[in-house]
Amino acid sequence: MGINHLSRTLLVAAVSSFCFASVEGALKSPPPEKSSKSTFTYDELWNLEKGFWDSFLYPANLKQTQGNKSTVFASDVQGRVDITRTFDGDELNREYIFGLFADPTHVSLVGVPVNYSITQFAANDRIASATTIVTFNATTIVTFNATTFDVLVPVTIDTWIEFNEDGKIAQYDAIFRWFEYLLDTLIEATAIKIKATSTDQAVAYVADVLAKTICNTHEQYCTGSNKQYADTGTCYDHLTQSIRFGKSYELGRNTLLCREVHEHMVQYRPDVHCPHIGPSGGGYCVDDMNYTQTVLQRYFNDSWIPFGYGQSQDIWLQG
Length: 319
Fold this sequence. Notes:
Blueprint: H1 3-28, H2 42-56, H3 60-64, E1 73-81, E2 86-88, H4 90-98, E3 112-124, E4 127-137, E5 142-143, E6 146-147, E7 152-163, E8 169-177, H5 179-194, H6 199-221, H7 232-242, H8 256-263, H9 270-277, H10 291-295
Parallel strand pairs: 1-8
Antiparallel strand pairs: 1-2, 3-4, 4-7, 5-6, 7-8
Helix pairs in contact: 5-6, 6-7, 6-8, 8-9
């Protein structure tokens, strides 16, 4: 055996021993202490997941907007949606998650949810991760004698949900997959409906409909100390001239699309939501975070990694 061949053999043996020792050491390392919080079986988590989506569909979602206590959310629930913002507490989340999609006759980007299909699901401990395709009915959205979209819309939503010991949602993280494609598709459907000659013309049409709807809602609910605009004309000019329409990820920024989201919730608590559709944006429709700040925001109380793993390196955890 040559010296070079012997050297290579010894080197390979040394590396192999090191790698085996490292793996063996990792396997023998004690796992993080298991949380003292109660856990659920896979079947229980599946049923809790389905229970949420059953409640999300119209008209079941109407029940969630009523009363003083949620059957779905914990009182201190934390929620984040990638295209909008974070939402704290049971009341705000009921208004946002359920109230936003609970009126089939009101102007909306996607209408009301009528069906769902869970296409991916994994669950452990207190956490369920799923991909759900929700079908929204936008065919009944009629305003100013014109149907806005006139389509059934499938929307893909990825969710991470943590349930508390009572089976209520303690925190959630939701991502609207392909939302830019969805928004473009809705604009294209509008262009066909109104026989627009350009995308800009279709966007202007949608902006006109949304702005008029928001201003009508402001006129009806935002009175007295909740008033945000001097009159309907001032409201319309601000929404169509002073702020941008909004990109697919800007439903939580200083845009018309953001105010369209919050317009649906004004009826529930005008004192809370009127500022959101006003010129200031009320802390929700504002340009206060850049891309990096959004990605690295420390928000959640619990890690999304089951059984206590990841606590030391999870940059989304508060504190």
